[in-house]
Design goal:
Keywords: Isomerase. One of its GO terms (molecular function) is intramolecular oxidoreductase activity, interconverting aldoses and ketoses. The structure is a single chain. Helix content is about 40%, strand content about 15%. It contains six helices and five strands. The chain has a five-stranded parallel sheet, sandwiched between helices. It starts with 11 loop residues before the first strand and ends in a 10-residue tail after the last helix. The chain binds D-ribose.
Amino acid sequence: MNPANTPIAPPVALGADHAGVALKAAIREALEAAGHPVMDLGTHGTDSVDYPDFGAAVASAVAEGRAAFGVLVCGTGIGISIAANRNPAIRCALVHDVTGARLTRQHNDANVIALGARMTGVEVALDAVRTFLTTPFEGGRHGRRVQKLSPGWSASP
Ligand code: RB5
């Protein structure tokens, strides 16, 4: 809590390819209006670009602590979520609705959310991002499972 006794909005890194740039702009506007410091890592236009570049940039920002959470958008959300998850510090969830956004925070402690601009409408996407950023991890049995997603863990023979 800050001195005004209101919750502090965590910093968020944003990234998208050309297919996701319009939805990213809507998300950026909503997050800034809600008081989040926003780091927009591009893309910034509709020229065709490669989604792995932006998934990796947001993943690095979160992994290095420059942002608390990441939000990624491409056409389906699939490619950019795969890209982000190549960073071992990242648990990126591809989400299509508010329920997925809530559960991936509660159960997976996801630190990045990926959305598909060709799959999910803007209002649902904005609700999902708000839910993602305000839902705490439940811990408990989920903590043990998330631990097994860490780079150091390996299954017993
Ligand atoms: C770009 O056309 C599209 O392939 C990309 O946005 C994404 O959907 C990939 O997974």
